[in-house]
User: Fold this.
Amino acid sequence: MRLDKYLKVSRLIKRRTVAKELVAKGRVLINEKVAKPSSEVSVGDLLLIHMGSTKINVKVTKIAEFSRKDDAMLMYELLQETVL
Assistant:
């Protein structure tokens, strides 16, 4: 699944266009490598997201094309959240 779509479906970022802009600016890493919006996300990947003054480190646990609000948190495991 594309990274920008994954961020939206998992509700880590509210809108896909915002996710795409954030990734395009180099603020999202997949397995410690700068990603592009079209980068593929797989189960087991580690994502590091820099949003404003917050760093979010998550592990991908599930890939789904659609998810309900209650099921979105099952798509990732929050490893660390740091507010700078």
